[in-house]
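Exam review. A common question shows you a sequence with its C-alpha cells and asks you to describe the fold in words. Practice with the pair below. Do the first one on your own.
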Amino acid sequence: GTCHSDSTKPAILRPQHLAWYRTHVARGLTFYPPDILSTLLREKKLEQDKNGALRIPTEDLADASSPKYPLISPMTEYFFDGTNDIAIFPPPVSIEPTEVDFGACPGPENPNPVPLCLMNHTKGKITVVWTHRSDCPFWVTPDTCSVPPLKSMAMRLHFHPPDPNCLYAAELEAFAVYKVLQSYNNIEEDCTVCPSWCLTVHCRGHSYRAALEHPVPQYSLHAPKLFPAVSAGEPSYRSLLLINKGSMMLTFNLAPQSSSDISLRPSSGLVAPRAHQIFLICTYPKGNSWKQHLFYLQFNFCPQYLKEVSMQSREEPLQLKLDPSKSVFFKPPWGGCSS
C-alpha cells in the first residue's frame, strides 16, 4: 500500500516533466515555484509553446524566438554543474562549502561541527531533506528544514568517528524541492511541476593519533602523459584509473599545490579494498607548444603519501579550413589513381 491518500498524494514526476524542466532552465523559469507559474499562466503573463513548455508571450508567433536548452556536451555539463564558481546555468539552490576535511580527530572529544550555509536563490519556499545512513559517522543538522525565498539557512556538519585509528570519507546528499509540490492539490497545471535538486557535500577525516603511522597505500595509478590536442579555446579531457590493491580502505584528495589550470573530478573520496576509482581531468590548452601540468594526489591523509602526476597539453594548429558551406570536394580520380 501507499503512505498517502489520493487527495494528499505528491505530484508524480514523468519524463515529460524533465523535458519541460530543461526548457524552463533555458528560459529562467525554474526560479519560480509552480503556484506562481500557474498564476502567471492564468493571468496571460505566460503561455505554452507547441510542446507545452512555458514561455513569455511574444509578438513573434514562431517558437524559434523562445530560448531552448542548448546542445551541451555531457563532459561540459559534468564539469560545470554549479558546484564550482563557473556554471552553465545559475543553480536554484546551493550549499557552501562542498568539501570539508576534519583532519585528525583522535578523541576522546568529538570535533567541533563545521558550519554549512544553504542558500535558496528561488522565489519560492523550499523543503530540504538530508539522507543519512545509521552507520555513517558524518551527518547534518537539522536533517529537515524549510528555507524561505531568497534566504539562507545555517546548518552544522558533524563527525563522530566510532573507532580509533581509522580513515573515514563520505558523500552526503540532500534533496531540495518546492514546498508546494508536497501536495498534488497545489498543482493547477502539469507543466509547472519541477523536479527536486540534489546537493552534495564531500567530507573526510580520520581518528589516527599523531604518534601512529597511517596505513601505507597500496595502489596503482594509470595516468596518460598527454592530453589530446584540440583547437584553440576548446577543452581537452582524459581519464585516469586508480586501483586500490590493498586490503584496507584508501582515501585520496587533490593536494592544494596542484596546477590551477586543470580540473579533476572527483577531487576527493574513498576507494574500497580491491575496488577502483575513475577520474576525469579537464584543461584548456594554450599555445602550439606542449605545456606541462603537475598535480598531486595525497593518500590516507598523510603528506608523505603524495603522488605526482605530470601531463602535457597543447593546441593543434589548423591544417584544413572549410569554406562557409563546410563542404569538401574531391575530384573523381582515374582508374588506378588516387585523389
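Now try the second one, then compare your answer with the model answer below.
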Amino acid sequence: MTADVLVFRHVPHEHLGRLGAVFGDRGLTYEYAALRQSWPEPRIEARAGLVVMGGPMNVDEVDVHPQLADEVTVIREAIERGVPTLGICLGSQLIAKSLGAQVFANPRGKEIGWFPLRLATAAQNDPLLRHFEPGETVLHWHGDVFDLPDGAVALASSALTPVQAFRWGDRAWGLLFHIEIGTRELNEWLADAGMRDEATAAGALAAVTAGVGEHEVRLTRVAAKALGAFADLVASRRGVTLTG
C-alpha cells in the first residue's frame, strides 16, 4: 500500500523528527526515499503529501547526487498538482530551485545557532507561520540561501538571511530553519562528525547544545501547531487520493 506522504531524506540523521509524530497523531503514514540509494523517480500523483528534508549537500551537486535533479522534478509536479509540500533547510532550497529561484552561498556566511526570526506581515494569516510569535527563536544551520521565487509570499527573514520562509500558493512552504528537531534529534546530528565539526568551526557548538534545552518546551508547542497545520492539509488531501 502506498504511504500517504513521500519524504526525501538526504542523510540518516536528518529525518522527520517532530513531524513524524504529528503525522502519526493524524493516522498518516509516510515513507522515506533515501538519497544515497538508487531509486526510480517516484510518482507523486497518489501521494497526499511531500516533505523534503535537509542535508549537507547543495542543490547543484547533481554530478555527485543525480537524484537531486529527480527531486526537483517531483517537487515541481507536486506543486502543480496541489499536493501539500514542505521543504526544510536543503528542502526549502530545492523547492525554491524548482520554482526558478537562484540558490547561492550566503555572502554573509553560515548561519548556525539559535537566532530570532523577523516575521513578515503575511505571516499573520499564514496557516503555518501564524503560530509563531514575533521574534521567535529557532535553530538555523545553513550556508546557502535563495531569492524569493517569483509569485511566492515572503513569510520570515533573519539578521543574516533575507528569505527564511516562503509560501507558494496555498499548499507549498519552504522553511530554511528547523522546528522539527528537539534534544534527541540534535544529539543525532552532533553524533555526525561532519555536523559537529561544522558547528565547532563556526564557534557555535556550545550555544547550539545549550539552546535546545532552553527553547525545547516552547518550540515543541509551536511546532505541534505549525506542523500540525501542514499535516491537516495532508489529511484533507488523503481523502482526495483515496477516492479519486
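Model answer, second protein: The two ends are 16 Å apart (CA to CA). The first strand starts at residue 5 and ends at 9. Full marks require stating both points clearly.
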